[in-house]
Structure formats: structure tokens, C-alpha cells
């Protein structure tokens, strides 16, 4: 009988813990042996010990991680969805050693993070309060650790007692060795758990002693601050009452406001000063070496009195600037009574936990168009494709900033960042949006809140095509027509958006256009669904010839690059590079000014690389954090949560009125599936009627015969183009001279019909 190995001493919180673990990679390779290192609250892993000096394969911060034990040897470490490690130890004893080390390291990391994190701006005396809260959380965690250790001690103690009792009843024989080994393992587990209990008690006692005096001081500080705040609040209330009486007594606007050039200060001017800090100029980086900004007052920080300079920058004359200030600036002294900003919803019902086998539906659809596959709502999300198109406007501020740019090349950077930002909402969104019915619409009226309004309409059904038009008070117009071509390949699903997006700026007359990249949904057959964006985009300014070439790198397990990486170069009509962009489509983008470019060494494909010498990169876009509980609400963003919120006055064809989509949002999926089938059958019946009317209205017998053959073909085989006389209600097809493309553009009339409440022209599609 071999002697058992002596147990590794239980690590203290400051120790570095190393060892081999098996990490889950994929369904092909399964668990692979990896070298793990736990140090300073970080768990890193390598393929071999030799890689520790140069190549780290991944790191997870334990301060924000959850540690879950699955069975005797398996456990999971996750930090909320971005990183998840499925690990397996060689034995239950080894697993317990790692769990103990990880829990102790996590507790220390949480304590250090809470203790040393700086206070946020405007927080004032809240630092002590956050420290107290952090300490309370840490001590609560220690209490939980004590409870856990106590439960483990009871559990392992009982198991050890049973093993000892069984050992006493066994005669000296063949089973003695096996029972002795079991007793030794039980004793080792009991010892590890006892050591963890002792360490947790020691930490708890140390924390309680160190922070008792600090808590008393913090509480006294909070009392003093509360008294000061009450006094300040009383003074502000008196000042507010005085200003309100003075405002009500005013009969006309001050002359300084009615004429911005005379030095009137408005909130609009203050906002422009903040924007100036975000504008990118060479002289701001190194004025001694890169002096390229002309000595023009409009390039320097403007005071609040230079409102006329602001009006020139935003493309507004003095009259329109006054009108815009009166209409959109609630802080300006004006006699108009503004409507309060509507409070949008921040939650929807949680997604029900209904199981349905995707492969049972998809196995007979390999090679088919996704739009022609009848899918239950179980694989959908409660939004229409039209609403998903409208989500592109989540980062509309990028176009607002671009509209104020003096340089078309700098404006191109904002347009390119807006292009990338439209993919940020897709990283966790594996649900399929509802296919819109022909004639379905969606309006997004955020004129009072964000300064823009948007309209989408489904203008074709086979192939499915949606037209989108958005216009902003800040001087830009966005329009797009998207047709989805999709193929199911068995293991993955490819979605290829066809059509183009165009952005027009009123002040400069710059006309940009670009196309979308391919979206791929992986692990259709088995595994967790995940989404990747790959391909290249050329954003073209048709007026100046400027171009931005963006490259979305496909994910590769063997690549050392950052996942979801995007790179881009902004060039003028002569091909000279002026800006470079880099980042990821799910997090942020940065841009920097190119000062010099040169040819470098050959790359992996034999092509000569270009080396750009740039100024310090500046962040141009960052993804907004998801709302709390987003994982239970289809991973919707804050904007997406409001898109299907019921609104009064919208068209009868609006997505918000679609019954199957509403039923799914409410969690009534069985009723939603039945309603979805009813709507699809109604749409087929309507299409057949249109095709028969087209045959009757044919001008010649030859044309009637051709249409009749097409109708019969569509009714029998559902293939080929549909020849009917359908015309979109709010959009019309034109040939765009600038881009040379044919697309549907908004022809007007929708918002006027909404103001009048007249929707007689709308078809009954629901």
C-alpha cells in the first residue's frame, strides 16, 4: 500500500498558489491540461510552465468573480459572462485546496479594491461611507465564509466519524487498505477545512479591530455633513424662490439673449465648451513640435459669450440659432412652457425558461434562407427587425459631434465610430428578431430628448427589405435600406446584410455611405451560442473622396490579438493617411492623428506593412453599460428596453401594436406562437390577392400570362420573385446620384399624419 502524499499547506491570502488544472476548451478538444497561477487576486493560466515568462493565455480578476462548485472535482469561475472558466482538478482534495485558495484570494482582492478605490467626482465625503459599506460587505463575506467553513467541518467531521466507525468494524484483510485511504482523505479534507476556518476567524477578528474606530469617525463625519447639507439646501430653496419670483415678473427677454453676438450666455454655449475639450487638435498634444492649428478664434476655447461662433460651427444662422435655443434649452429665460421629458421604462418581464431543441427544427433547413424557415418565438427576442435597425441610433451623439466638425477627415472618424457602435448591442443578443410584416412600420420619436426622430418601414417581403430614415436637429440625416441574405450551414448561421447606409450632413453637404459586415452565429448544433462580426467596411465621402477602411477581424482561438478587434485608416482622395482607428466593436474605439507613415517589414501574407507614427490615441466611443438584470431581459440595452413600450398616437402598422410580439414580451409564448401563425397566414392571403389583382390589371395578354405563371409558381413552390403591385406607403425608390445606388428614401407625410391623427391610408396588417 503506497503512502498518501502529504497535503499541501493551506495558502494564506498573500501567497502565490500554482498548479495544474484541466480547463474546458470546446466540444472537440474537451478538457485540456493548463498551468494555473493565483497571485494578487488574479488567476492566470498558461499552456505550460515555460510560457509564464512571455505568453499568458488568460486572466480573471477574482474581485468580481463568482466561484461555483459543480461536483467532487469540477468548479466554475465566472466574472459575469465575459469570462467563464470551467475547471477540473485531479481529485476532490486538490479541488478543495484550490477552492480554499481562491476564496481567500477573492476576499482579500475585494477588500483591497474597496479600500483603495478613489472617490468618484462630486461624491464629496462619500469616500468614508463607501469605505464603511465596503468593510461591511467584506465582513459579511467573512461571516459567510465562517458559516461555509462550519458547514464543511460538520460535513467532513461526520464523514470522518463514519469512516472511523467502519474502520473499527473491519477485520484485518483485503478491505483494510481501501478504507485506510478513505480515512486519510477524509482527515485531509477535515484538516484543510479547519485551517480555512481558523484563517477566516483570524481575518474577521483583525477586520473588526482595525475598523471599529474608523467607523465611529465616519459616522460622526456623516452627521456633520448631513447638518451642512440641510443648511445648504435651505439656502438653495430661498434662492430658487427668489429667482422664480424674478422670472415671473419679467415680461420680455433680455437683449443679451435675443442677440447672441452681444455676449448672451446660454446653456448651448456652455455645452459647446464641454465639447471643445473632446475635440482633437494637434496642438493639444505637443504644441512645441506639432503646431498645425491656424490662429483662428473658432479653433480655440470659446467663452460663453461667443454664441455667434457656435452658430456658425453648427451650421445655423442667427435666426435659426435663436429659435433652436428657445425650443431646446430649458435653462434659458423664455416664456414658453416646455413639455416634461417622458420617463421611459427600465425593465420588461423576465425571459421565461422554456426549453426547445433548436436542432430538431434546423436539421431540415440546412442551406435555406433564414427568412423562409418557420421559427417559433422561442428563438426570438420581443423586438422586430425594424426596431433592431433603430437601435443603430443608440450612439447618435457621435453624429452630433461629427456635424460640428470643421474638418471632413475628422468628421469621417466620428462617422466610422458610429458605424462600429451599431454592432455593440449584438455581442450577447443571440435571439432572432421578428421578421416584419409587409407594410409594418416603427417610429422612434426622440425629438424632445435627443433631437432626432426616426421611421422604419418594411418595403419588401421576399426578399425582406426594410427602409430607415432618421433626421436630427443637429444637422444630419441617416437613411438606410437593408436586405438580409442568410444561410444556415449546420454548425453556424451566416447573416449577410445587403444594401447600404448613408449619412448626410447639412452644413458641409458631406455625403457618406457604407455597407455592413457579415454576422455569424456559432454553435448552432451544440454548445453555447455566440456571435462574431467579420469583414471589411469602406466608409466613403462622395463629396471629397475621403475614405475610411475598417477591418473587423474574425475571432480565432489561436490569435494573440484582442477578440472582436476593429482597425481602420482614414485617408484623403489621394490615399494619404490622416487618422488611424483601433478598438473593439463590443467595448470602445480610439483614434489618433497620423504624423508620418513609412513602409515596414513584410507581414505574414508577404505584403509590406505600413507603419504610422501617430499622436497619443484619444477615446472617441465607449459602449454604455447594460442595465441591471439584462441577462434576464434578453441582454437588452437601456434603449432596447424602451423600443416596444406602448405609445399613444403611433400608426396602426407600428411594431408596438403587433400582437404576437407583445404576447412574447409578456411571457405568453404559446399564445404568441399561435398568433404568429395567424399573422403569417394572413400575410400570404393578402399577397395572393395582390398578385391576382396585378394579373387582372395587366395591359397586354402577354404580360398577363407572364404574371399568371409567376403567381402559380409562387403559390405552388414559393420560389422566385413575387410579381405584385405593392408600393411602400412612406418611402419611394430612387436612384441616388452620389452613391450610384438604388434605394428607398422617405417621401414625407408620416409625421404630418401623426399630428392630424389621420391613419386612413394605412393597411390593416395585424
TrEMBL record:
It is found in: Membrane. Residues 304-314 have a biased composition (Polar residues). PROSITE patterns: OSBP, PH_DOMAIN. Residues 654-695 have a biased composition (Basic and acidic residues). Keywords: Coiled coil, Lipid transport, Lipid-binding, Membrane, Phosphoprotein, Transport. One of its GO terms (biological process) is lipid transport. It holds the Pfam family Oxysterol_BP. SUPFAM superfamilies: Oxysterol-binding protein-like, PH domain-like. It is a peripheral membrane protein. It comes from the Eukaryota. SMART domains: PH. Residues 219-246 form a coiled coil. One of its GO terms (molecular function) is sterol binding. Residues 292-344, 649-699 are annotated as: Disordered. InterPro entries: OSBP_sf, Oxysterol-bd, Oxysterol-bd_CS, PH-like_dom_sf, PH_domain. Residues 14-107 form the PH domain. GO terms for cellular component: cytosol; perinuclear endoplasmic reticulum; plasma membrane. Belongs to the OSBP family. PANTHER family: OXYSTEROL-BINDING PROTEIN 1 (PTHR10972:SF205), OXYSTEROL-BINDING PROTEIN-RELATED (PTHR10972). This is Oxysterol-binding protein. It comes from Scophthalmus maximus. The gene is LOC118312762.
Amino acid at each position: 500500500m503506497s503512502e498518501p502524499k502529504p497535503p499541501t499547506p493551506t495558502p494564506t491570502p498573500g501567497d502565490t498558489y500554482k498548479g495544474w488544472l484541466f480547463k474546458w476548451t470546446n466540444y472537440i478538444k474537451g478538457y485540456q491540461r493548463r498551468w494555473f497561477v493565483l497571485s494578487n487576486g488574479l488567476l492566470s493560466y498558461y499552456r505550460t510552465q515555460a510560457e509564464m515568462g512571455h505568453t499568458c493565455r488568460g486572466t480573471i480578476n477574482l474581485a468580481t468573480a463568482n466561484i461555483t462548485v459543480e461536483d467532487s472535482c469540477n468548479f466554475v469561475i465566472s466574472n459575469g459572462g465575459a469570462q467563464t472558466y470551467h475547471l477540473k482538478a485531479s481529485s476532490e482534495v486538490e479541488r478543495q485546496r484550490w477552492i480554499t485558495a481562491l476564496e481567500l484570494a477573492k476576499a482579500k482582492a475585494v477588500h483591497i479594491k474597496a479600500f483603495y478605490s478613489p472617490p468618484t467626482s462630486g461624491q464629496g465625503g462619500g469616500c468614508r461611507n463607501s469605505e464603511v459599506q465596503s468593510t461591511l460587505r467584506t465582513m459579511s463575506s467573512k461571516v459567510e465564509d465562517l458559516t461555509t467553513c462550519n458547514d464543511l467541518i460538520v460535513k467532513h467531521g461526520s464523514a470522518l466519524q463514519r469512516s472511523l466507525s467502519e474502520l473499527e468494524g473491519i477485520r484485518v484483510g483485503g478491505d483494510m487498505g481501501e478504507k485506510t485511504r478513505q480515512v486519510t482523505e477524509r482527515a485531509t479534507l477535515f484538516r484543510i477545512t479547519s485551517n480555512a476556518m481558523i484563517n477566516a476567524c483570524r481575518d474577521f477578528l483583525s477586520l473588526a479591530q482595525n475598523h471599529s474606530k474608523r467607523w465611529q469617525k465616519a459616522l460622526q463625519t456623516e452627521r456633520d455633513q448631513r447638518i451642512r447639507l440641510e443648511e445648504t439646501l435651505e439656502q438653495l430653496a430661498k434662492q430658487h424662490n427668489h429667482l422664480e419670483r424674478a422670472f415671473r415678473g419679467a415680461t420680455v427677454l433680455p437683449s443679451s439673449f435675443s442677440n447672441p453676438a452681444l455676449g448672451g450666455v446660454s446653456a448651448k454655449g456652455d455645452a459647446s465648451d464641454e465639447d471643445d475639450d473632446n475635440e482633437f487638435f494637434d496642438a493639444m498634444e505637443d504644441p512645441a513640435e506639432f503646431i498645425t492649428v491656424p490662429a483662428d478664434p473658432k479653433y480655440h476655447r470659446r467663452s460663453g459669450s461667443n454664441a455667434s461662433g457656435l452658430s456658425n460651427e453648427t451650421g445655423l444662422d442667427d435666426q435659426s440659432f435663436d429659435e433652436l435655443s428657445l425650443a431646446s434649452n430649458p435653462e434659458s429665460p423664455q416664456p414658453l412652457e416646455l413639455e416634461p421629458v417622458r420617463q421611459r421604462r427600465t425593465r420588461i418581464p423576465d425571459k421565461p425558461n422554456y426549453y426547445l431543441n433548436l436542432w430538431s427544427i434546423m436539421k431540415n433547413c440546412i442551406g435555406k434562407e433564414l427568412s423562409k424557415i418557420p421559427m417559433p418565438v422561442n428563438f426570438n427576442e420581443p423586438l422586430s427587425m425594424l426596431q433592431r435597425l433603430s437601435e443603430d441610433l443608440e450612439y447618435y451623439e457621435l453624429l452630433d459631434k461629427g456635424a460640428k466638425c470643421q474638418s471632413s477627415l475628422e468628421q469621417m472618424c466620428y462617422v466610422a465610430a458610429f458605424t462600429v457602435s451599431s454592432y455593440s448591442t449584438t455581442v450577447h443578443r443571440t435571439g432572432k428578431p421578428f421578421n416584419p410584416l409587409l407594410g409594418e412600420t416603427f417610429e422612434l420619436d426622440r425629438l424632445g430628448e435627443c433631437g432626432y426622430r426616426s421611421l422604419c418601414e418594411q418595403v419588401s417581403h421576399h426578399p425582406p427589405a426594410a427602409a430607415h430614415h432618421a433626421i436630427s436637429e443637429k444637422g444630419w440625416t441617416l437613411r438606410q435600406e437593408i436586405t438580409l441574405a442568410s444561410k444556415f450551414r449546420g454548425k453556424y448561421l451566416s447573416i449577410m446584410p445587403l444594401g447600404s447606409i448613408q449619412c448626410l450632413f447639412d452644413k458641409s453637404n458631406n455625403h457618406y455611405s457604407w455597407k455592413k459586415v457579415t454576422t455569424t452565429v456559432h454553435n448552432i448544433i451544440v454548445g453555447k451560442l455566440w456571435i462574431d462580426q467579420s469583414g471589411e467596411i469602406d466608409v466613403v465621402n462622395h463629396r471629397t473622396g475621403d475614405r475610411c477602411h475598417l477591418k473587423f477581424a474574425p475571432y480565432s482561438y489561436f490569435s494573440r490579438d484582442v477578440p472582436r478587434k476593429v482597425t481602420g485608416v482614414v485617408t484623403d482622395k489621394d490615399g494619404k493617411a490622416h487618422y488611424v482607428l483601433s478598438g473593439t466593436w463590443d467595448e470602445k474605439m480610439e483614434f489618433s492623428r497620423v504624423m508620418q507613415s513609412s513602409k515596414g517589414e513584410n507581414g505574414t501574407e508577404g505584403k509590406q506593412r505600413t507603419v504610422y507614427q501617430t499622436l497619443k490615441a484619444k477615446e472617441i466611443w465607449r459602449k454604455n453599460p447594460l442595465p441591471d438584470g439584462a441577462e434576464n431581459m434578453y441582454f437588452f440595452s437601456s434603449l432596447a428596453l424602451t423600443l416596444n413600450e406602448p405609445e399613444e398616437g403611433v400608426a396602426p402598422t407600428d411594431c408596438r401594436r403587433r400582437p404576437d410580439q407583445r404576447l412574447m414580451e409578456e411571457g405568453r409564448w404559446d399564445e404568441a406562437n399561435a398568433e404568429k401563425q395567424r399573422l403569417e397566414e394572413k400575410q400570404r392571403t393578402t399577397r395572393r390577392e395582390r398578385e391576382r389583382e396585378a394579373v387582372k390589371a395587366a395591359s397586354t395578354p402577354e404580360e398577363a400570362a407572364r404574371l399568371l405563371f409567376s403567381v402559380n409558381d409562387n403559390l405552388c413552390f414559393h420560389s422566385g420573385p413575387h410579381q405584385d403591385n405593392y408600393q411602400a406607403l412612406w418611402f419611394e425608390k430612387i436612384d441616388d446620384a452620389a452613391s450610384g445606388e438604388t434605394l428607398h428614401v422617405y417621401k414625407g407625410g408620416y409625421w404630418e399624419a401623426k399630428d392630424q391623427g389621420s391613419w386612413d391610408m394605412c393597411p390593416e396588417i395585424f
